[in-house]
Give the backbone structure.
Amino acid sequence: MTEEPLLDSKLEPPDPPSGLVERPGLSRALDAGRQRPITLVNAPPGWGKSVLLSWWTRATEFRVGWVGIEDGDDPRFWSYLRAALNSAGGFAGDALPSPDEAPQEVFLARLAAMLADLREPVGIVLDDFHRIRDPRILKGLEYLVRHAGRALRMVIVTRGGPGPALARLRLADAVTVVEGADLSFNMAETVELLAALGLELPDRYTRMLLRRTAGWPAGLRLAGLSMRGHCDPLRFVEELTGNHESIAGYFTSEVLDGLGGGHREVLLCGCVLDELTGSLVDALTGRSDGERILAELWEAGVFLDPVGDGHSAYRCHRLFREFLRRELVRRAPLRVPELHRRAATWYAARGSSSEALQHALLSSDWRMATDLVTDYWPDLVLSGPDPPLWVPGPAPPEAALRDNPDLALACALNQQILGDRRGTDRYLRLTGDDRVAAIHLARSVAAGDVATASSQASRLLTHREDNEGARSVALSALGTARLATGDLSVAERALDGGLVAAERVGLGRVRAACLSRLAVVRALLGDLHLAKRTAQDSLGSTTTSVACGYAHLALAITHHEWGEGDEAARYLDLAEGSGDRLLAALISVVRLWSLQDGESRSRADEALRETHHELTGWAVPRYIAHRFTAAEAGLRASFGDTRTAFRLLADQAEASGGSATLTVALARTQLRDGNLDAAIRTAAGAPNGELGLALEAGLLEALAADRLGHGRHASMSLEKALQLADHERFRGVFIREGPAARRLLSAHLDSGTAYWPLVMDIIECATERPDRPAAPLTERELTVLRYLQSVLTTEEIAAELHVSVNTVKTHMRHIYRKLTASRRREAVRKARDAQLL
């Protein structure tokens, strides 16, 4: 039997394509990966893995061999590895042992021993390693890595899933990972690629192309090549989808044709949705193994990514989903309405009314749509806006809409979910149903129109007081409006009533809305433990962005009052991005609270600008305005600018009507300014308000009295503040006052206090704060940190990473906090000092 020869072509990296975009950042990542035994480059097809490694092997001074793996190479793998090591150089003649001359265990031991004796390390690139099927090969590679010492550096190139099972090496921090997110093109690289192809687009269209492809290198190159022959490149970008001939051809040949029938069926049926779970796949296809099929597709690198931390749900790449939808319509057009109907049934059974309504209308099942409105209209009123699930289907006939107000209302609610206000109004004109009032009410709440929302909620309560669904919506809106105006006790009663009504008729979305806002109200009132339980209850029962935002805000306030700044910041970051105006304003104000102690002037000014932006363009309720003014005055005073602080407070004072927020802020400013007698009088005369404000006033009075030498007055005021703080474990207000409060509390221990455990807890926390080590940066934070070295704006960084501006700002805040920096330049300098860059 003739032995199969080794092919030299498999030992040479592929030639780079014309117009190669060099990527020095990734080259540095690969060079840094040489500090560990294995670098894993793992991404779906077309993400430029082989191109990157081909360019790197030519550019690096490191000795690197190459093995291009094909299906069926398992029996000859070790021979190819030996040949690649020989080609990398450093070995005399046939010094390396041959796998054909000894059992595998003996061969590997001899090879490891010889590698371990090398003076200079050698590298091996194993391209398309996913084609290896023999598990013994991976075990053999792990053996080599363990016993060859620092002499062997391996780059494994694969696609899909978690990559090879390297659990032991990962646990030992011996694996560097480069993933699809790292390989995605950024704005500058996209411009360079287009220029290499002879194309130049306006920035807006380049960004649009980058968003549509999500930075997928092959998609960008295919689009660029197609644009070269297009008469209108800008129009090409506007109309680019996964259905374009070149992109669709790539998906067909590289992905779809290589799948078995069951896997292909799951993808085609599942493309009617944006997100897939095993249960949903089973409902769409009639199978019972949907979860397993999704996991296998992910492991095969089929443009399917897990959603969240677990692997219970998956989402397709945008272009791939568009391609699959075209294929579904082409191959089985009659199945599309039925798939939407099955999806609607699945969502309805789980109470996901907005998704169920969208799919019911897409399936033209008017009866199901009207049934959903009948059963869930209060939940639907509070839904959205969400992106469309599919290209809109045919609208119901005009006659059917006129004869069936519920169908017209279903279409109106669907348009509201899609964020189409004009379309909503068009359908609302076809129905005289008084549930229309609830839709207008939901609009007013989302827009922050507190006065209109209050009057609309009152009218709805009057006209439909016997309807629990309408009552729950109205009370939810009324409670939100009262939260905005600071009437917290009234807000709590309204939201509690809305919660009871929603639970009575099983309205999950309304229940979550009431619970989440109730958590914020309770946190502001000072019921911290109850607020935390309420917020956690809300988060456990909903995934809607607005409800989760309010719940996270409540947790941020709670941890802020407990003096747990890192946790407060984490929850505040989670609260962002819902689009609700009142929520955004409250988040901005609470963020200012955390900046009042020890922050730089530039960072404070940036936070103030952001908050001013959130409060521009709408009728800001006086309670929110007072909170903002008080926070800004506190920041100005902390930097010694008490003059500006006094002016800000004076401007609001005349219209304040005895605001506890402004009174406490004034007392703090007087204390900072050294006007101690005035500070005592102001703090002692603060109106009764929220618990946190009351104990803050008591502490300020104690601090001012102590500085005047009035020990008895200071002790009595401090004891009253501790009494207020004890039950809910308020510590933050004491910790934020720094050394002055710590000295006062220490002296108070000597004079005697009924709250010894609380005082000791506060002193311990306050003492530990300055010495607490910074947390390590996450991989995503490190990525953002690298961009901070550039001249790109925050918006441009967001575009290059394909994330929102808010997400980039969140990462920047984490970076600044962990590096104890206040601006980009300082963060970069400290990162370089720490050898993070």
Summary: Strands lie at 38-42, 64-68, 122-127, 152-158, 175-179, 276-277, 304-306, 313-316. Residues 768-773 have pLDDT under 50 and may be disordered. The chain is about 65% helix and 5% strand. The two ends are 56 Å apart (CA to CA).
